[in-house]
Amino acid sequence: MKKRLLTIPLIILSLAACSPHPGAGVWKAEGENTLGIRGMTLAYEGKAVFSSTRVKPALWHCFWNGASSHAANLDCTPSTDTESHERFVFTVGEDGVGELRQQGQVIGRFVRETGNPAIQ
Predict the structure, then answer these.
(1) I need a surface site. Which of 19, 35, 53, 56 has the fewest CB within 10 A?
(2) Residue 109 forms beta bridges with which residues?
(3) pLDDT tens digits for 67-117?
């Protein structure tokens, strides 16, 4: 009986560790933003992609990791300069709205869409 009681908390802890990061998903821009990003995808396996139409028009390929329970660091390379690397931070607020920042400046706000966050 004691073994069963000890097993239950271990199962609960192991399930909690497997939950996806709240940033993972398909995101649509909420209005206009600095870089002209219409949407972005943060896939579960740590890849992200978005395209910008202003300032630096490009398709951005990124790798992301969880910086905290509600923030993700994105290390990105634009298609126009594959030697360049830029860092963004994507945070998801308690209201479920995401914010993309670069060097502390808000680039844009995003809302989650339905869909599989897969990147080919």
Answers:
(1) 19
(2) 99
(3) 999 999 999 999 999 999 999 999 999 999 999 999 999 999 999 998 777
